Amino acid sequence: MGTDTKRAARQRSDLSRIKAWWRTLGGDRFAVLPPPNRSRYTQSDGHEDAAEMFAVRGISTDASFAYWHWQSHDAFDRDGDLTGELYLHWGGDHATVTAGLGDGPDGYRIVNGGPQGAFRLDRVTAVDGDGLPDPEDAAGVRQLLARLDTPSLRTAEAVEYAAPTPAEERWLHDRLWDLLPGERPAAEGTDAPATDATDLPATAPATDTPAATTASPQEPAAPDLTAPDLTAAARFVSPLEHRQALTPDETGRLLAAWRETYAGRLSTWSGWAPVLHALLRQEHPDSWDVAAALGPEASYVLAAHPSPRSLELLRAWALSGNGSAVRGWYRTHRTLREPDPHLAARTLSGELTAHTAPETTQTALLDALRTAEAEDRRTAEAEALRTAEAETDARRTADTGAPHTAEAATGARPTVTGRGAPADAALPLLATVRYATDDRLPRPLRVAAAAAARDTVERVREAAGRLPAAEAADALAAVERYEAARDDLLAGTGPDLTGYEGGLCDLYHHYRTLSPADVRWLRGRLADPSTGVQGIAFCLELLYAHGEAGRDDLEALLPRWKKELTKQYRTTYTEWRHPLTTLTCLALDLDHPAAADLLAWWAKPKPLWKNPVRLLTHLGAPDEAKAAELWEFIVSDGHDTGHLMTWVLLRARLDATHPLHVAERLIGDPAVREYVLHRVLIGVADPAQPLWHYAIDPRSHSWWRRAQEVADDPRLTDAARAIGLKAARDHHILRYPAQVRPVLTEGELADARAWAEARADRPAAD
User: 408 pLDDT exceeds 70?
Assistant: First the structure.
């Protein structure tokens, strides 16, 4: 394709049309940000960009605005065509933004996500009388598949999908066969035979099946199958098998192509799960070889097809430490061997302990137990309700002499409900509290329950007030038992250091002060060679910031630093720094001989990832020369990845003063970006636990408390306190409390609102 042709194609793309429309938007009290680049990666970045644009253009700070960020931009492919809905985020007044965006550009539509959601822009597409798009209409096909792939019911144990219309099912099979090579089976109702699975190329049969024989020379040769486009096929495989509609012929052809195209990396094909479901459902002889090759990723699929072989595979994966396999093992064990949820959990917990499986497997088992009991309870309640309805219908029929059902009387089946919203909301939390002191469960499971209930026990106490008197008394008694046992159960334990980094950030406020038991646990994790980079970063930062890190901690990590700690580890969304940054600071503070080797490594030009964070090591053994080098970078307008934070903490150490006083002296300094300074001012409020997140995290307990403290600190200037007040007013605890993690209690939310109301007359920073 020539340059002119490519340029013309770009001009006709969705992206070009949307940009052209976007340029027409804006007006009184509404503005749009320019299309994004990689620096606008999140919604926080979008709000920062809006603040900068408002300042440059003189737009009122209370104007409303709309934008999309780089993650949303993934909706476009390389040619600029939409591959999904484009999420348009916003700030300010929702009604103003709604009016400002209007109906979207010609040929497109906008779905309004409401006051707490994003707007979604997509193409308008045409469909036929059956509601089906032209197969050549990529946008129409995508929208139909999205609708068919949306569950009609989702529970912890199962996902259900609405049955397709006959026309939709035929259309799906037709589209899949458009992508499958070989002879297409005849349509239903004709006398032409469909291709049977035995016509497919032979695959390695299981050793215990009679099919493991040598083919005779007289057998017909397998058809020459050209590998289909599996990426495209996966889109149609999923909605078909969600309804158990893949045929053996389709499954066999997909399996052959999958094995050939993705040999040695089966799980990298996006369509593997529905095909494995189909293989197991159809009892294909190669099912178990495929499952074993996929490994623990196949746990959820295997659990949906319980058998002795699936139980064996799931057990092996669970004992190796895989949480998904633990859940599948528990579910399958209950189905095949022990339906009682507590006995099943006790048996599996004992096996995990005997095989020294990681502690995280006990947490996964606890989650499986909690889910199973909740499902059992909902099933029992639904069945009791149906029984009661049937008895009522029978009595009315006997009284009137005419058949009577609730469905006939109302035209619809009554909704099956449980005990009511207050009780339903409290039950999962209460169950976890009870597990912690349930003598039917082994100690490892009770320890996992105690940790899980740590941030929910107060919510249980509040919810008890909405339960009937007898149930409330029982719930409060369970809370008292939990609180009496908690400290003993949690002694010498800590969080899962291998999980999602956001989960560790959510509980960071628990470590604002360190108990002797906390210090011992953190040091133990540093000394444990199985602790990974994230775990080292978390533990070392806490020990270093609290002044508890010492020579033993440093030397425990020195054998690992060159091979493990020199790897890239992104800390954009964490409250801690890269572990090698912190380790270097510790070595410098201790004047340890290893400091020279560490500094020599930082001075090398590669790897490139370290260059943006090299200057953060200046916090160790600070001096005026390091302070000057850091400041030179800060005023150079380079990208701040913790530099101003480091300079403020460094300067505070040199001046023997609180870092808040260092930060507030920078207010109004034109050489410092205002939004970076605001974040640093809040982040250094407690120098014993600085917060290194790249932006003020509006859903964090830690940032909320620091914002309050800055707003109320009498040692600070009015300007500094106004910055704290602005951060507090912008926090989700006041605007979107459901997004705060851990979830707030009603008391915490009431206290936050009362705090804000008491300061309603105070000015906040712009």
Answer: no
Closest CA to 305 of 335, 285, 326, 275: 335
The two three-digit tokens of residue 653, written as one number: 């150490």
Token representation of residue 616: 């953060």
Structure tokens at 395: 């009595």
d(CA 681, CA 121): 38
State residue 158 phi and psi, 5-degree precision.
Answer: -155, 155
Which candidate, 726, 649, 662, places its Cα nearest to that of 692?
649
Alpha helices in 591-642 (DSSP H): 594-603, 624-634
Contact indicator for 531, 540 with CB cutoff of 8 Å = no
13: how many CB neighbours lie within 10 A of its CB?
A: 17
What is the radius of gyration, based on Cα positions, of the chain?
31
CA 661 to centroid of chain Cα atoms: 37
Going by the DSSP 8-state scheme, the letter that residue 700 receives in this structure is B
Which class for 268: exposed (0-12), middle (13-18), buried (19 or more C-beta within 10 A)? exposed
CB contact set of 26 (below 8 Å; sequence gap of 6+):
32, 100
Residue the block writes with tokens 């009122």: 60
Cis peptide before 742 (omega within 30 of 0): yes
| Least confident segment among 220-224, 682-686, 727-731 | 220-224
Other beta carbons within 10 angstroms of residue 602's beta carbon come to 18
Q: What tens digit of pLDDT does each residue of 224-280 get?
A: 445 578 999 999 999 999 999 999 999 999 999 999 999 999 999 999 999 999 999
Nearest-angstrom CA–CA distance, 295 and 325: 10
Does 321 score more than 50 pLDDT? yes
Nearest to 583 by CA among 564, 606, 607, 608: 564
- pLDDT tens-digit series, residues 590-633: 999 999 999 999 999 999 999 999 999 999 999 999 999 999 99
d(CA 79, CA 65): 27
Find, among 452, 432, 457, 445, the residue nearest to 503 by Cα: 452
Angle between helices 674-683 and 701-712 (to 10 degrees): 100
Greatest mean pLDDT among 172-186, 218-232, 323-337 lies in 323-337
Model pLDDT for residues 111-160, shown as the tens digit of each residue: 999 998 999 999 999 999 999 999 999 899 999 999 998 888 887 667 88
DSSP 501-565: HHHHHHTGGGGSS--HHHHHHHHHHHH-TT--HHHHHHHHHHHHHTT---HHHHHHHGGGIIIII
Beta carbons within 10 angstroms of residue 188's beta carbon: 8
Distance between CA atoms of residues 684 and 718, nearest Å: 17
Confirm if 662 and 655 have CB atoms less than 8 A apart. Answer: yes
Q: What is the mean pLDDT of the chain?
A: 89
DSSP letter assigned to residue 352: H
CA-based torsion, 103, 105, 106, 110: positive or negative: negative
Q: In the structure encoding, which two tokens stand for residue 608, read together?
A: 């490139």
Domain boundaries, the chain: 14-124, 231-357, 358-392+426-493, 505-695
CA dist 335 → 157, 277, 295, 329, 432 (Å): 12, 18, 21, 10, 23
Cβ atoms of 166 and 172 within 8 Å: the answer is no
Structure tokens at 84: 């999904």
Only one residue has tokens 């309870």, namely: 377
Helix (H, G, I), strand (E, B) or coil at 438: coil
Measured distance CA(370)–CA(164) in Å, rounded: 33
Q: Compute the distance between CA of residue 451 and CA of residue 444 in angstroms, rounded to an integer.
A: 11
C-alpha distances out from residue 709 to 510, 662, 702, 715, 718, Å: 17, 16, 11, 11, 13
- Stated as kind and residue range, the H or E segment containing 112 is none
Q: Is the peptide bond before 274 cis (omega within 30 degrees of 0)?
A: no
Residue type, 479: V
